[in-house]
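Help needed: design a sequence for this.
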């Protein structure tokens, strides 16, 4: 057996905002907004969650039955760390009760941070330096406040946790089939803990340039026999918003064999749409994007078979693109469905526009304060219905910048 994913889980926050409801509040056509961005709802955190709690809450279910001492590496990818020095991997290590004899650190490269972390862990495993141990890799991010801006409709958040090992059960990575492309550009970026800025047009062009560049490198490194249409039964594109996946797919279709838009749409429905089921409910999935797509495909009802190849495209602003692939292992769909991700998304508390706006504005005002205790009474009932007694990690308080967490 090769190197790959043994377990995978997605944490989609505890609250959700309906995209149509937001469109109406902003005097937009609700159906056009949904059709343009392919987002039905977006995730939202209450004030007692951050990238630390999201990461731990994604990882805790896949640690069930796993000896903490068997984890030799922990990497957390994020562009929304709560500290500029102390990596959130240390907070997560403590919360999960992992062994002190572990390598842990944080990775940053915008939305590529999650796949960058996976790449590093895979190399450690493939080199045989793990001594039988596994790697826990997590990506965790959510958007900053963008009220009444044109970007407001593509915000969201998610955390993805993967247990990587040399005894995979879900996906086996094809280590030699990987292409990358990089450049130096300011498309979207976070110059401070509160600011999330950029140029949408520049970002779109950069995303597509990186897609073409990484695909060409993937073909070169995988061999001349690489066939986009026949070699990849399924495709998962990076989704800053799910709607961009169609543009990405059309680009690769036309590079490989130019075709009519109707043919692109049909192929998109068959090979790409299964990967969008969760992202349509989460909004922007940041560094978790590829793993959110993998979880959606593996836990869906598509006719996925053992040995099917999934092609993934990861992108991080700044910028880098990476095209890579993995193969589906026996029983992967049944094991992925057992995680119950859809049921957890369904259990999120739907918030009103007023609750959403107040939560976002309050969070913005508290991100860098030295003293802070989250108000668990707002939004009303969320703590009682979605946290109390549910065993989720939450932020209790901040004192002199020191953050204290506890399981609910």
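Sure. Designed sequence:
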């Amino acid at each position: 057996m090769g190197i790959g994913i043994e377990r995978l889980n997605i944490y989609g926050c505890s609250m959700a905002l309906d995209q149509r409801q937001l469109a109406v509040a902003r005097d937009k056509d609700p159906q056009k907004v949904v059709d343009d961005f392919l987002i039905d709802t977006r995730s939202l955190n209450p004030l007692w969650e951050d990238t630390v709690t999201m990461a731990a809450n994604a990882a805790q279910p896949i640690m069930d039955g796993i000896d903490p001492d068997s984890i030799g590496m922990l990497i957390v990818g994020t562009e929304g760390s709560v500290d500029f020095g102390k990596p959130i991997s240390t907070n997560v290590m403590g919360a999960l009760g992992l062994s002190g004899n572990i390598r842990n650190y944080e990775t940053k490269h915008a939305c590529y941070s999650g796949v960058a972390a996976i790449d590093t862990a895979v190399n450690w495993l493939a080199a045989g330096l793990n001594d039988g141990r596994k790697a826990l890799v997590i990506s965790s991010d959510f958007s900053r406040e963008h009220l009444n801006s044109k970007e407001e409709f593509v915000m969201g958040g998610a955390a993805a946790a993967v247990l990587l090992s040399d005894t995979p059960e879900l996906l086996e990575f094809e280590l030699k089939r990987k292409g990358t492309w990089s450049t130096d550009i300011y498309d979207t970026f976070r110059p401070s803990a509160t600011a999330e800025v950029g140029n949408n047009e520049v970002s779109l062009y950069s995303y597509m340039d990186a897609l073409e560049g990484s695909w060409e490198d993937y073909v070169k490194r995988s061999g001349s026999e690489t066939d986009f249409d026949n070699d990849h039964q399924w495709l998962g594109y990076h989704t800053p918003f799910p709607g961009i996946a169609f543009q990405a797919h059309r680009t690769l279709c036309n590079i490989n064999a130019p075709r009519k838009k109707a043919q692109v749409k049909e192929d998109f429905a068959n090979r790409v749409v299964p990967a969008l089921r969760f992202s349509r409910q989460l909004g922007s999935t940041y560094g978790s994007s590829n793993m959110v797509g993998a979880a959606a495909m593996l836990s869906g009802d598509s006719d996925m078979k053992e040995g099917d190849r999934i092609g993934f495209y990861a992108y991080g602003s700044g910028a880098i693109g990476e095209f890579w692939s993995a193969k589906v292992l026996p029983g992967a769909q049944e094991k992925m469905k057992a995680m119950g991700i859809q049921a957890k998304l369904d259990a999120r508390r739907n918030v009103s526009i007023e609750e959403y706006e107040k939560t976002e504005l309050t969070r913005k005002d508290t991100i860098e304060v030295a003293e802070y205790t989250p108000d668990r009474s707002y939004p009303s009932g969320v703590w009682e219905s979605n946290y109390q007694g549910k065993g989720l990690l939450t932020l209790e308080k901040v004192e002199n910048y020191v953050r204290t967490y506890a399981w609910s």
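The radius of gyration is 20 Å.
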